[in-house]
């Protein structure tokens, strides 16, 4: 029976160190981590790998419920998939496990709070952008990945995984850039 750790943060400039250290203290092996939004499961390849290979009796461990996801349905679907495989989930802060019904109720509540928190963040972001636009100081988001480097590497025959690794970004970001550029070429 394995204790499989999962760590996630939303952006490249955030650190996974605290989560990984705590999962290591809990003797999780292996520990999978990724820097992807928790708004949905799309593009979260490390989580998908865990769910593909987790076995009966194994335990998926994460620091907080919002690290698993910020969508109630996604979190509950993950718990359901674990149930189907005879595995279970443990959240460390606060300590919750799906081994019993009480833990499932608390986890459902925490997943709903995480989703609500994500909505509040988006609302505050929209308000801030609207205020900045009204003041004439809004410049838009900054690109985190150099599009030209992605395209140049792609033209030399490198695949999305190699490009992502070389540039320190996710494959999903590479795919988005390639798709956007192909769409622009088709429209031209």
UniProtKB/TrEMBL annotation:
Entry coiled-coil feature ranges: none
Gene3D superfamilies the UniProt entry points to: Homeodomain-like, Resolvase, N-terminal catalytic domain
Record-annotated Resolvase/invertase-type recombinase catalytic domain positions: 2-136
Recorded superkingdom: Bacteria
GO molecular function terms attached to this record: DNA binding; DNA strand exchange activity
Similarity comment text for this entry: Belongs to the site-specific recombinase resolvase family.
Name by which UniProt lists this protein: Transposon gamma-delta resolvase
Native source species: Methylobacterium dankookense
Upper classification of the organism: Bacteria, Pseudomonadati, Pseudomonadota, Alphaproteobacteria, Hyphomicrobiales
Gene encoding the protein: tnpR
């Amino acid at each position: 029976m394995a204790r499989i750790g999962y760590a996630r943060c939303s952006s490249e400039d955030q650190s996974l160190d605290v989560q990984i250290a705590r999962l290591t203290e809990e003797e999780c092996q292996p520990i999978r981590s990724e820097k992807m939004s928790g708004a949905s499961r799309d593009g979260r390849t490390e989580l998908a790998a865990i769910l593909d290979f987790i076995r009966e009796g194994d335990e998926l461990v994460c620091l907080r419920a919002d690290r698993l996801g910020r969508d109630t349905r996604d979190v509950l679907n993950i718990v359901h998939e674990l149930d189907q495989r005879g595995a279970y989930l443990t959240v460390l802060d606060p300590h919750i496990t799906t081994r019993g019904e009480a833990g499932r109720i608390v986890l459902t509540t925490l997943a709903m709070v995480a989703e609500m928190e994500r909505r509040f963040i988006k609302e505050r972001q929209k308000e801030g952008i609207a205020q900045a636009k009204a003041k004439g100081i809004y410049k838009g988001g900054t690109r985190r990945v150099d599009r030209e480097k992605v395209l140049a590497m792609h033209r030399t025959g490198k695949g999305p995984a190699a490009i992502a690794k070389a540039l320190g970004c996710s494959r999903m970001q590479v795919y988005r850039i390639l798709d956007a550029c192909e769409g622009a070429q088709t429209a031209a």
